[in-house]
Design a protein that fits this description.
By secondary structure, this protein is an alpha/beta fold. It contains 4 helices and 5 strands, in the order E-H-E-E-E-H-E-H-H. Helix content is 26%, strand content 15%. 18% of the residues are buried.
């Protein structure tokens, strides 16, 4: 049985299910909030939060998965990107309050306070930017 981790909600959920169905793997869940579903004789869908899918794959709870590359990079787990599915693109941006006088990255002070859900990617960005 090959287990494929799919997003259980969010903007990646529906395109991921359509992708499997287009490949002939109909996702047949027993209930709307099921944790897994049959996708034919040899495949099973495992539903998880998009940010948990890299962990599921790295820990062996799933053999493959559909999630954002940003979440794979943030996870720090050793995974391989096999295919860009060309949906769910995102971009990470640096924002400041409207009243700020900062207009460029160079305008930030030496150690700015940063709020992010991507601490690794943010740290890598600032390190690479000097």
């Amino acid at each position: 049985m090959i287990r494929i981790a799919l997003p259980n909600k969010g903007r990646l959920m529906e395109p991921a299910r359509v992708l499997l169905e287009d490949a002939g793997l109909e996702v047949r869940a027993r209930a709307t909030r099921s944790l897994s579903a049959s996708c034919g004789e040899h495949y099973e869908a495992v539903f998880a939060r998009s940010q948990d899918i890299p962990e599921f794959i790295a820990d062996g709870a799933a053999d493959a998965g559909v999630t954002g590359w940003d979440l794979v990079c943030e996870s720090t787990r050793s995974l391989v990107d096999r295919l860009d599915l060309r949906f769910g693109s995102c971009r990470l941006i640096l924002a400041v309050p409207d009243e700020s006088d900062v207009y460029t990255l160079q305008g930030l002070q030496a150690c700015p306070r940063v709020a992010t859900t991507f601490p690794r990617l943010t740290s890598d960005f600032f390190r690479a930017s000097g």
